[in-house]
Amino acid sequence: MAKEEYRLNALYGLRERTKEEAERVLAQAMRALKEEQTRLEEMEAELERMIASRKAKAKEYAEKQMRGEMSAQAMISAQSYLERLKEQEEAQKRTIEGQHRVIEQREKDVARCRQS
């Protein structure tokens, strides 16, 4: 004898598929959030490296100036180089700010998925 089908079995199956799909979407949103957070950490580490590099160069140039090993033209060039490094740091900071906005959006996506 065949197993009896209840009328609500179709509804139960639909709910199960919907639940599984929601769980899949949530996992995907959480994975995207984690990737963006990792990218932010990498950007911040790069900024720290850039700052340390600029400070080391500034110290090196200052020591050369104190010893009289740099001409006036070399001092001007060194100062221009340090200013360019500072501009690159500022650009990296703006990139980090943009990444913060991306993370906020991913967090909203995760919250929306949890509510559904």
UniProtKB/TrEMBL annotation:
Name the InterPro entries for this protein. Answer: Flag_assembly_chemotaxis_eff (IPR053716), YscO-like (IPR031869)
Q: Which key words tag this protein in UniProt?
A: Coiled coil
Which Gene3D superfamilies is this protein grouped with?
Answer: 1.10.287.1700
Coiled coil ranges? 15-60
Protein name (record): Uncharacterized protein
